[in-house]
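Action item from last meeting closed. Structure (642 res):
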């Protein structure tokens, strides 16, 4: 806990969360503008000129207004009072539930086989399209700053499939050109490197120390580097016992075989059965304070701490300790080979797909000018457009009109602005979350519903905080901070990428966007149970609590660099994802990973009559390429029933 009072933390300060709408100040007591209502979770028509969700601050991600109706469906009380849906009278070739990258890619693939005139309706419960690939925009003075509210970059542990790569290329993204847009020397020219923040509750003192071995998998790509003299500083200053400091050095520097006598295959099998924590404790034999130091380091990537990450997955990611084991692991080699980060993350991919589907909605013609282009939301759902995106619309029921085997049409009921509608189509793709589908399609076989329910998504919090300037980071020589016991465990300045007319912050006096991430979980139980608990935590934590925690954490971490939270925080957007990454199977908890047998996602994604299932859960992989792969498969399955 900090000794600072709420006013000292700036809890009473005017920031864009409360006082600005699309960069325009609103005076206290002024009549509510439509956009302000919208920011509070009320629904304003997406045709309103004020409708511009990327610029909304406060609680975003699964924002108020986006999930309540779906939860009523889950709780079983929706249909009691829902009444009869009002028929919109529209008829489509395809209705897609979910406007994330999978849903948008499904529309793109459907057009390929059914032609550009095919009538497609995309429904999404959020006020913006893109699903997890969300854009955060900020106005500070006369400049626009961008942040990623979810999906960070094109990267994947597996090579992109020909299909996924084909979409990226068709959108005009030249992945190999990324180095052209990245200012590799910027952090170095400011002397910024990786740090660890030790807090006094856990380590006895608040202090920022050089991180001698930044773990891979963070969000500063290969710019997440140690200072040249980091080891000397760490050994002298880290507030952990001396044997623990020596063990950190031994772990990170020695190349030792901790499973002598086993061949590579036997080692991999053994490492898949123990956690990274057990590997460190039992095989490397580290001091308990090393565990305390690293127990949360894996959370943003895996959604759980190192007690629930299989040691083999840690080895595959390039975590320290495996260099002398003789097992095959290329670390994040593949991710580094095929990597592209837009300042708004893969929201640029979503926006490029939308521009391809509805050209009038976003101006421009290249994969770089998309970054600064302003979307016109009024164009998304126009009657004469073959593709329409209807936001703030939660699908509540998807059923065949008649017997699923012989039916010629699917009926979709959706809830929007307090009203229930229904609309028909020849086909339907469910590009939403697997666990929602059993509620949407009660007619599915029970075994498939069970398989769908297996996919418990990983909860994540991505908070973007705009600071008046980056001078505290320069004084402290930091660009990336790991906080083992922090509310947000990782704090990063976004990669310095300038592209398509967008200039990343350069000088010490420029405002910057900080990215803070947290994966709520509870150590000691199975990963999926941890995710369930973390999800409830995210849904029940208020913006004010998160804001308080952000201010306090930054005050304590950056205070010695002259940072004042009351003065220096300009805006906060908290992207809350209680249903975040797709669940990836874990060899510690999912017996079929090691013992063999069908994976739940295979039976979960089976086509049901004219309804096919896309989305990244369908492949149990939390990556953009998987969302595209699954869209391709789903559309392929529908081709036979035209
Ligand atoms: C915080 C975060 C960071 C990530 N970072 C990366 C990264 O750096 N690189 C990478 O490759 N991948 C990353 N991923 C994973 C990647 O974002 C996903 O794999 C991919 O975007 C998923 O796309 P999707 O369309 O399947 O699902 P989503 O993006 O979740 O889209 C599905 C949409 O369907 C909507 N929906 C659900 N139910 C209904 C309903 N009943 N009616 C209407 N709409 C509904 C959802 O609200 C959502 O908008 C990240 C994920 C998260 C959460």
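Sequence:
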């Amino acid at each position: 806990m900090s000794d600072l009072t709420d006013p000292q933390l700036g809890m009473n300060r005017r920031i864009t969360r409360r006082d600005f709408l699309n960069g325009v100040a609103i005076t206290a007591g002024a009549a509510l503008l439509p956009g302000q209502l919208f920011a509070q979770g009320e629904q304003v028509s997406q045709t309103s000129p004020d409708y511009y969700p990327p610029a909304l601050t406060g609680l975003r991600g699964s924002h108020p207004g986006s999930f309540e109706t779906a939860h009523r469906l889950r709780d079983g009380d929706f249909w009691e009072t829902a009444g009869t849906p009002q028929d919109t009278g529209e008829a489509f070739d395809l209705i897609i539930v979910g406007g994330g990258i999978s849903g948008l890619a499904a529309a793109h693939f459907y057009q390929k086989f059914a032609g550009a005139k095919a009538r497609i309706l995309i429904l999404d419960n959020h006020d913006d399209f893109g699903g997890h690939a969300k854009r955060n925009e900020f106005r500070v003075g006369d400049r626009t700053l961008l942040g990623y509210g979810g999906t960070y970059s094109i990267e994947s542990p597996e090579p992109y499939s020909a299909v996924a790569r084909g979409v990226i290329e068709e959108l005009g993204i030249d992945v190999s050109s990324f180095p052209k847009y990245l200012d590799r020397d910027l952090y170095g020219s400011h002397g910024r490197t990786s740090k660890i923040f030790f807090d006094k509750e856990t380590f006895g003192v608040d202090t920022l120390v050089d991180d001698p071995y930044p773990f891979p998998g963070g969000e500063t790509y290969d710019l997440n580097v140690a200072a040249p003299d980091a080891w000397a500083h760490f050994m002298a200053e880290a507030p952990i016992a001396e044997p623990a400091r020596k063990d950190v050095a031994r772990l990170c520097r020695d190349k030792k075989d901790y499973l002598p006598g086993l061949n590579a295959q036997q080692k991999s099998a053994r490492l898949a059965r123990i956690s990274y924590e057990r590997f460190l404790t039992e095989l490397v034999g580290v001091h308990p304070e090393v565990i305390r130091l690293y127990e949360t380091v894996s959370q943003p990537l895996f959604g759980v701490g190192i007690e629930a990450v299989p040691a083999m997955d840690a080895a595959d990611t390039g975590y320290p300790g495996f260099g002398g084991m003789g097992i095959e692991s290329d670390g994040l080699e593949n991710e580094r080979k095929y990597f592209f980060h837009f300042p708004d993350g893969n929201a640029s991919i979503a926006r490029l797909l939308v521009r391809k589907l509805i050209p009038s909605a976003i101006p421009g013609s290249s994969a770089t000018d998309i970054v600064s282009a302003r979307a016109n939301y009024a164009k998304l759902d126009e009657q004469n457009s073959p593709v329409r995106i209807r936001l703030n619309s939660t699908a509540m029921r998807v059923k065949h009109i008649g017997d699923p085997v012989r039916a010629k049409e699917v009926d979709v009921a959706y809830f929007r602005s307090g009203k229930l509608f229904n609309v028909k189509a020849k086909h339907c793709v469910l590009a939403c979350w697997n666990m929602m589908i059993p509620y949407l399609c009660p007619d599915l076989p029970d075994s498939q519903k069970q398989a769908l329910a297996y996919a418990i998504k990983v909860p994540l919090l991505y908070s973007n905080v705009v600071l008046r300037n980056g001078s505290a980071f320069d004084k402290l020589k930091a660009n990336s901070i790991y906080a083992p016991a922090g509310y947000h465990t990782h704090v990063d300045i976004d990669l310095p990428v300038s592209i398509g007319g967008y200039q990343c912050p350069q000088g010490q006096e420029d405002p910057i966007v900080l990215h803070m991430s947290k994966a709520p979980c509870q150590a000691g139980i199975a990963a999926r149970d941890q995710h369930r608990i973390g999800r409830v935590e995210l849904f029940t934590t208020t913006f004010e609590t998160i804001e308080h925690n952000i201010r306090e954490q930054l005050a304590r971490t950056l205070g010695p660099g002259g940072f004042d939270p009351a003065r220096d925080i300009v805006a906060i957007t908290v992207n809350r994802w209680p249903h975040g990454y797709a669940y990836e199977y874990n060899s510690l908890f999912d017996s079929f990973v090691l013992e063999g047998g069908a994976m739940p996602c295979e039976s979960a994604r089976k086509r049901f009559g004219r309804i096919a299932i896309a989305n990244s859960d369908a492949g149990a992989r939390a990556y953009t390429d998987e969302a595209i792969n699954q869209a391709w498969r789903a559309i392929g399955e529908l081709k036979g029933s035209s």
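Note appended to the action item: Residues 6 and 12 are 7 Å apart (CA to CA).
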